[in-house]
Automatic annotation (TrEMBL):
One of its GO terms (molecular function) is glycosyltransferase activity. Residues 19-184 form the Glycosyltransferase 2-like domain. The lineage of its organism: Bacteria, Pseudomonadati, Bacteroidota, Flavobacteriia, Flavobacteriales. SUPFAM superfamilies: Nucleotide-diphospho-sugar transferases. Belongs to the glycosyltransferase 2 family. This is Cellulose synthase/poly-beta-1,6-N-acetylglucosamine synthase-like glycosyltransferase. Pfam families: Glycos_transf_2. Keywords: Glycosyltransferase, Membrane, Transferase, Transmembrane, Transmembrane helix. The chain crosses the membrane at residues 257-277, 283-304, 313-333. It comes from Ichthyenterobacterium magnum. InterPro entries: Glyco_trans_2-like (IPR001173), Nucleotide-diphossugar_trans (IPR029044).
Amino acid sequence: MNFSFHKESASTSKNIAISVLICAKNEAENLKQFLPSILEQEYQNFEVVLINDDSTDETLKVMEAFKEKHSSIKIVNVKTIEKFWGNKKYALTLGIKAATHNFLLFTDADCKPVSRHWISEMSSHFSNTKSIVIGYGAYKKIKGSFLNKLIRFETLLSATQYFSYAILGQPYMAVGRNLAYRKETFFVANGFMNHMEIKSGDDDLFINQVSNKLNTSISISKNSFTLSEPKTSFKAWIKQKQRHISTAKHYKFKHKIALGLFYTSQLLFWVLAILLLSTLFNWKIVLALITLRFSIQFISLGLISKKLNEKGLIILFPFLELFLITFQFYIFIKNLISKPQHWK
């Protein structure tokens, strides 16, 4: 895991003009709670583009109330047309077109930056060559919830992969709750047109399409993290993961192979470990190999969890990994039977 030993270089604030984009569909309460953390950022030159994606609740009224108090807010009110019904990419495209500045920073309505230096930290990674910045989007901790630990562990593993690949010069995805790129990068790639018919993927499919070792940077400073509200029921989380897993099949072939091999190796390890130990076949050797594998992973993930502020998960690592592999297999089968729904 190359990311385990990666050290981020000191960032230098550039104070470039930034447009922060938030696409919201029926997010009135979340906007009331989390939008102030965006507006209170310690950054001189930024606007906030609020995109109301055909909401049926009070989302637009909440946006307008904030705009009355903050001149830095711009509202894009999207009325979905039949061709793009339920498609977040259509709403985001209109928001990107309306953004004043060339440097765009994205997050979600149910997210908040962990510090007032989020914009400064993320924007500091832009340069003449770096037009994409991938950040970390954590989930809030809920004490006593196994589901919450599972969600955060899955988020930690995913981040380990996409940060490691980016460091190795093979960036393949990012999360839309903490992502930045140039406006011109979006339009040169014709936006989301290559995958507009796919309901999800405004973040990972776009980055999979346009990112490379020359134009992509990562930000792992704790001040650059965002914190999101996690799902609180297995049913809601499984629906969310259905969309994510169905999107991954549209990645570039080399990325699908690499990710597929990683999951297969995890699955085979557990199947063989359980089978061989249950039959006591060369159990001393098998147990030694299992111990070696866990020791290496504890060290690697321990270093990474410290970087991403998720240290409390590592002690439960073997159990969380087993549960996660099981649920991923279940979701994969479920996707074969029924298609995931649109984003809201």
